[in-house]
Design a protein that fits this description.
Layout: E1 2-6, H1 9-14, E2 18-21, E3 26-27, H2 28-38, E4 51-55, E5 58-59, E6 69-70, E7 75-80, E8 89-94, E9 97-104, H3 112-121, E10 126-131, H4 138-153, H5 162-171, H6 176-183, E11 191-196, H7 199-208, E12 213-214, H8 222-228, H9 233-237, H10 244-254
Helix pairs in contact: 4-5, 4-10, 5-6, 5-10
């Protein structure tokens, strides 16, 4: 039996201070999947990227991360580092490229025309939209974008435009129309808006956004991504890393050929 203690914001999410899980010899990833099933449906999802997971007082990051195997009698503490959810935007600079990212609340009236209008208004910016459910976490998001930026610099893009390259790498396919259908923007679906370019224009774009920007990565997509891309348990277990699912997605994205 494994004891799970919920601290701070985790207590509000799971509506209890502590619970017990009868299984043992499972990974933290598997434990999180079990906890997802007992979480009240009317509370927000745990933001795993901003949560400290301690096993018997030891940070899991100093062990094997989410692949750490839990044994009978272990005590796992879930401690959110940032209370109230994720930040509403993400920005970074890579190879002199400025990248600004937002998560947009899906609405019936928001479709591909929204993206076309932004591109027409800011022709010097690279702008792409990816369905939120195809993004695992901030690390996965940033690494795919960096992979596309490197490909552009080395003149090995999957397409003639970097925004199409980004789309195909999240969809894990080289057929452009299928990639658009799979991970592209759709009415009522939340999506990640990726903008690359001059800081001044990025700032102007943000001021002109009239859509609802919402916290990023509030929902966990591990189960969806495993099922959609048919990633089996034995494949995950064959990879020795802190986040094997992320590594598999990145590996598949990096070996795509047009």
């Amino acid at each position: 039996m494994i004891t799970v203690k919920f601290i701070g914001g985790a207590k509000k999410i799971y509506q209890t201070e502590q619970t017990s899980v009868s299984e043992s010899n499972i990974s933290i990833n598997e434990l999180i999947e079990i906890l997802d099933k007992i979480k009240p449906s009317n509370t927000e999802n745990l933001d795993l990227d901003n949560t400290l997971l301690a096993i018997n007082g030891v940070d899991s990051a100093s062990l094997d991360g989410l692949s750490t195997i839990l044994k009978d009698g272990d005590i796992v503490s879930l401690i959110p580092i940032i209370h109230g959810g994720s930040q509403n935007s993400l920005s970074f600079t890579f190879l002199a490229k400025n990248v600004q990212i937002y998560q947009i609340k899906g609405e019936k009236i928001i479709d591909v025309k929204f993206l076309e209008e932004l591109r027409n208004h800011f022709p010097k910016l690279t702008i792409q939209a990816i369905s939120s459910k195809f993004i695992l976490n901030s690390s996965h998001l940033k690494k795919i974008i960096k992979l596309s930026i490197i490909s552009q610099k080395n003149h090995v893009l999957l397409s003639n435009k970097i925004e199409t390259d980004i789309l195909m790498r999240f969809a894990l396919m080289t057929q452009i129309s299928s990639a658009i259908t799979t991970v592209g923007i759709k009415p009522n679906d939340d999506f990640i808006l990726i903008c690359i370019g001059n800081k001044k224009q990025l700032s102007q774009l943000k001021k002109q956004l009239t859509v609802q920007i919402i916290p990023m990565f509030a929902k966990r997509n591990e189960l969806f991504l495993k099922r959609y891309f048919k990633i089996q348990k034995n494949e995950l277990e064959s990879i020795y890393s802190k986040n094997p699912l992320e590594d598999i997605l990145l590996e598949r994205a990096s070996v795509l050929f047009s």
